Amino acid sequence: MASFALNINGKTQEVDVDPNTPMPMIVAEELDTDWKDVIVEQAPLNTDIFTRQLAGGSQSIRAGWEGLRMADATARHMLIAAAAEEWKVAVDEITTDAGRLFHKASDKSMGYGEVASAAAKLAVPEEVALKDVKDFKIIGTSRKNVDGHKIVTGKPLCGLDIQGRNVDRHDRSSTCIRIEIEILRWFRSEENAWNKRCFYDQDL
Question: What is the pTM of this model?
Answer without folding.
Answer: 0.68
